[in-house]
Design goal:
Blueprint lengths: L1 E3 L2 E4 L3 H12 L4 E4 L11 E2 L8 E2 L6 H4 L2 H12 L4 E2 L4 E8 L6 E7 L2 H5 L7 H14 L1 H8 L6 H13 L6 H8 L3 H8 L4 H6 L15 H15 L3 E2 L4 H13 L3 E3 L4 E7 L2 E7 L2 E4 L2 E4 L3 H8 L7 H6 L6 E9 L15 E4 L3 H12 L2 E2 L5 E4 L14 E10 L5 E2 L12 H16 L9 E7 L1 H7 L37 E3 L13 H10 L1
Parallel strand pairs: 1-13, 2-3, 2-14, 3-10, 7-16, 14-22, 17-20
Antiparallel strand pairs: 4-5, 6-9, 7-8, 11-12, 12-13, 15-19, 15-21, 16-18, 18-19
């Protein structure tokens, strides 16, 4: 096979789907190359436990997508092809923990209405501080979201962002805002709040940005998370995440995109003028423009046989973040929380905030299984009853603080000598369920079946999840924003003419926004 096309795209995650759709709709001939037998990368759903129980295998929640530029460009087309969201109108997220001082349970709930959320904060001044946090972000939203959607090493684009801020009169207070933005989430919250509620509610959400509570830029990502959920809720795809991919697949087919599944990209071909195409396991795809949605290691150490000087070495030093784990449960009944308010909350964290989450992150970074992990409890059936048979429920548990190759157990109980064996996976699941049982007794007894994906399983499923990191690399400041993935290759446009790098390891980083695919598509139309 020797096919010729305008643009070849390697990989079919969210950024590839967005780029392929926008470029094809602009009249470009596009070929999408995917090694798996399906599109979507970490967007997938299936009956993973029992018939009739539909689980989102990996990612699930779409606030970043529906609030971003890709959705503005493609949303109507996707809905016309069957995409339907179920969303929260009242409670959107919550966190529950045991108060370390009193031993009592404490619960904080975020409503779509930010004023209603803030009214539950008890410490002096915290209600006003919460409103002020969101107002401060709102005043600077044009600058922040403009930066998320721009090439930060482009003088022209940075000047455009600055000019917009000047027109809006937003330079007053810029230094204070930048200072707060580069704070850790813990320090940001300490500087603004007196009580525990904002910390317990939003610090665990930093994990979803590939951060921990003690890492820089939490001071901007934390209020961004809050503002996004107040404004856009926590939408899930009706009937399962695979329906999102099906809508994209229909859109691509309607616009003539050539889709190559079960096809390995083996080499990006280059001549003196730049990229010439992709050598695949099924033959050559000729294209003068190639978008590679792959890890930096794969791009500069594998796909390019003669990468520009220094890039292979820099890619090898690129640091991946902590591993993650997914536990899917089929339940004989919905979870019954001791605090019944949580029965109707789509996503609940088991965390007391920066303290317990920070400890778990540190243990995982040291190669240990956390003794008390932060547990993300996804109750998709609260929003979408089609996910399980009547009277039953699914449960989506995510752990974002686990080592890829465990060196020990912080609790000193589990034997990790064989790595992520089936036995270790199930033993760690029992630790997680015991933690959940504190706040929702009877949940363990209601479990009908389970399916566990350890960090090693994530890496096997998706080559971009190097060392089980689903976020495309650590999002700490040294390899984020202006330096993502690393300074020598921080633009999406690589030093090779016609070759572009997209995906979560590029700016604006992890999440289901489709941001890098949208950004590059806008430049290539």
């Amino acid at each position: 096979m020797d096919d010729s096309t305008d643009i070849a795209i390697i990989g079919s995650g969210i950024n590839s789907l967005v780029a392929a759709a926008e470029l094809a709709m602009a009249g470009k001939r596009v070929c999408l190359i995917e090694r798996a037998n399906r599109l979507g990368g970490f967007i997938h759903s299936a009956e993973r436990t029992l018939p009739g129980f539909i689980h989102d295998s990996f990612s699930s929640w779409h606030p970043l997508f529906v609030s971003g530029g890709a959705y503005q460009a493609l949303g109507a087309e996707l809905h016309a092809r069957g995409l339907e969201y179920c969303n929260a109108e009242g409670a959107v997220t919550a966190s529950v923990a045991t108060d370390p001082r009193t031993g009592r349970h404490r619960v904080v709930v975020a409503q779509r209405d930010p004023m209603l959320t803030a009214s539950a904060f008890q410490a002096r001044g915290d209600e006003a501080a919460y409103v002020a946090m969101l107002e401060d972000l709102g005043r600077n939203a044009g600058t922040i979201f403009g930066a998320f959607g721009a090439e930060l090493r482009s003088f022209k684009e940075v000047v455009k962002i600055a000019a917009g801020a000047l027109r809006r009169g937003k330079f007053k207070g810029t230094e204070a805002f930048v200072r707060e933005s580069v704070m850790s989430g813990r320090n940001y919250l300490r500087s603004r709040f007196n009580g525990w509620e904002a910390d317990q509610l939003w610090s665990p959400w930093l994990l979803h940005a590939g951060l921990g509570p003690d890492q820089a830029t939490g001071g901007v990502m934390l209020p961004v998370m809050a503002l996004s959920m107040h404004g856009h809720g926590l939408p899930v795809v009706k009937g399962g995440a695979s329906n999102f991919v099906s809508a994209f697949e229909a859109l691509l087919q309607d616009n003539g995109v050539q889709i190559m599944l079960d096809t390995d990209a083996e080499e990006i071909l280059v001549d003196a003028r730049g990229a010439t195409g992709v050598k695949t396991s099924r033959g050559l795809v000729s294209a003068r423009t190639v978008l590679a949605n792959v890890s930096p290691q794969a791009l500069y150490s594998t796909l390019l046989r003669r990468p520009p000087a220094g890039l292979a070495e820099a890619a090898e030093r690129y640091q991946n973040g902590r591993g993650a784990m997914q536990i899917h449960l089929a339940l004989g009944r919905p979870v019954q929380w001791l605090d019944s308010r949580l029965d109707s909350v789509p996503l609940v964290h088991l965390s007391n905030g920066a303290d317990s989450t920070g400890i778990a992150c540190a243990q995982a970074e040291a190669g240990l299984l956390p003794a008390e992990p932060t547990v993300v409890v996804g109750q998709q059936c609260v929003l979408d009853r089609s996910r399980a048979p009547a009277g039953k429920a699914t449960l989506w548990l995510q752990l974002q603080e686990v080592p890829f190759a465990p060196a020990g157990d912080a609790a000193g109980v589990l034997n990790v000598d064989g790595g992520w064996t089936r036995q270790l996976k199930e033993q760690y699941m029992e630790r997680v369920l015991a933690r959940l049982e504190q706040f929702a007794p009877g949940t363990r007894a209601s479990v009908l079946a389970w399916d566990i994906l350890a960090p090693t399983d994530l890496a096997a499923e998706n080559a971009n999840a190097v060392k089980g990191d689903p976020y495309g690399g650590s999002a700490e400041l040294f390899q984020n924003l202006l330096w993502r993935p690393f300074p020598q290759a921080a633009n999406h446009r690589t030093p090779i003419k016609g070759l572009w790098h997209i995906g979560s390891s590029t700016h604006p980083g992890p999440g289901l926004s489709g941001g890098s695919g949208h950004l590059v598509a806008q430049k290539l139309k």
